[in-house]
Design a protein that fits this description.
With about 110 residues, the chain is α+β, with helices and mostly antiparallel strands. It contains six helices and four strands, in the order αααβαββαβα.
Length: about 110
């Protein structure tokens, strides 16, 4: 009995895993571009409109400083520590992304 007849579906079983791995390789650069920094300016974005009311409370409760309104309705720019902000954001139904003005589509101020 040869190997090919013993495992007729061996190639197909690994196909979804291979497709998932390739998708992750394609998505990784985009995800890294929006990953929040360890510390500094970040954008706190509510996932659902109902969560928008808790954005300020979540940020202040995590020790962050409010810096302004974000480009997405209900979002806020905050300055703080990712290790404290991320768990608070997830608990309140929000995501935390980089606060880089270039990525957020805001005009750059010249210094």
């Amino acid at each position: 009995m040869d190997q090919s007849s013993a495992l007729p579906c061996a190639g197909r079983r690994g196909l979804p895993l291979a497709i998932a791995a390739q998708a992750m390789l394609l998505l990784a650069p985009g995800l890294l571009a929006i990953a929040p920094p360890a510390q500094g300016m970040m954008l706190l974005v509510p996932i659902a409109p109902a969560n928008a009311a808790a954005v300020e409370d979540a940020a202040l409760g995590a020790g962050a400083t409010l810096a302004g309104f974000g480009p997405i309705p209900g979002s806020r720019f905050v300055s703080g520590d990712r290790a404290r902000l991320l768990p608070a954001a997830l608990r309140h139904g929000m995501i935390l992304v980089t606060g880089n003005p270039r990525i957020c589509g805001l005009p750059q101020s010249e210094s």
